[in-house]
């Protein structure tokens, strides 16, 4: 898992699973504490995700909300969305809507 930053956007690349949760959690919490703005997690390059990773995002979302901010997931692919629904955590996130294509 590679993590890059673009302002308040955290861009994830690779497999987001139990092996990478510590690094992502640390990056998210640093962003939540360091910025007085909303945080976006871009997941366009996330190949796979597991329940442990989704729980990290759910807790970070609650933490952001309690601080008066939003954590938004952007560019969630079909496999990420599927896992959100299978894990019953889909209601825990604000997922940015994708623009309709013609």
From TrEMBL:
Alphabetical list of Gene3D superfamilies matching this protein: STAS domain (3.30.750.24)
Domain STAS: 1-102
CDD domains with a match to the protein in the record: STAS_anti-anti-sigma_factors
Pfam families: STAS_2
Listed InterPro entries: MlaB-like_STAS (IPR058548), STAS_dom (IPR002645), STAS_dom_sf (IPR036513)
Database matches in PROSITE patterns: STAS
Official protein name in the record: Anti-sigma factor antagonist
Naturally occurring in which organism (per UniProt): Nocardioides currus
């Amino acid at each position: 898992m590679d993590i890059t930053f673009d302002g308040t956007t955290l861009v994830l690349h690779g497999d987001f699973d139990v092996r990478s949760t510590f690094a992502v959690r640390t990056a998210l919490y640093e962003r939540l504490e360091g910025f007085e703005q909303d945080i976006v997690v871009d997941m366009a390059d996330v190949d796979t995700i597991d329940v442990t990773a989704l729980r990290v995002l759910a807790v970070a979302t609650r933490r952001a909300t309690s601080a008066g901010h939003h954590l938004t997931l952007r560019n969630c692919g079909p496999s990420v969305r599927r896992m959100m629904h299978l894990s019953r955590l889909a209601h825990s996130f604000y997922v940015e809507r994708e623009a309709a294509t013609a």
